Amino acid sequence: MRKLTGAVFQSLDGVMQAPGAPEEDRSGGFDLGGWSFHFWDGSMEQPFGKVIEAEYDLLLGRRTYDIFAAYWPYNRDNPIGERFQRINKYVLTHSDEPLEWDNSSRLSGDTAAAVEDLKKTEGRDLLIQGSSTLYPPLLSQGLIDRLLVMTFPVLLGRGKSIFDGTQRPSRMKVTDHFVSDSGVAFVTYEPAGEVPMGSFETREPSEAELERRAKVEAGAW
Hints:
Blueprint: E1 4-11, H1 45-52, E2 56-61, H2 62-69, H3 79-86, E3 89-92, E4 104-107, H4 111-119, E5 125-129, H5 135-140, E6 146-152, E7 172-179, E8 185-191, H6 207-218
Parallel strand pairs: 1-5, 1-6, 2-3, 2-5, 3-4
Antiparallel strand pairs: 6-8, 7-8
């Protein structure tokens, strides 16, 4: 079965919209595009290269596909552009507009079901780039095998996120981590079962605590 990795550029407050350029994605009135640019430095080449230079096919939402298709085929002298040109691009879309970029295939219907079926096929592992709309249904169904979160030291306050509150509660284990010279934290997570729960309290609750709990139950706290 193919493995699925989500690679996310995000701000400290979880915004992942338009990290690369001001015109990348202005939807929702977002006017802070290009916020990642000044944090990129040579120390990031090796950890980012482990992801982008691996063997994979792309899994994209339609908007990210359109952004990529308008840029990378015209930048094939860049190793990333050359790679993106030759690999398969699987696009989750409800639109009937043609996918004109080489090696592009349409996936339609329920997002989670379509990706689950794709993972069962033969082929390279899958990598999500951008595509914020894919994360909520895939996280809620446990279909992402690895999550690389690259957190930039900037607060944006608004914009798209990969989380919307529907993700499945689960424990995550850190399998790799790195902090760049400019302060970008690369952390790779993999699912590790159910959320473990416990308490630091070792004594019986006080009368005050029991009273507080009663107020909580009554909706008066």
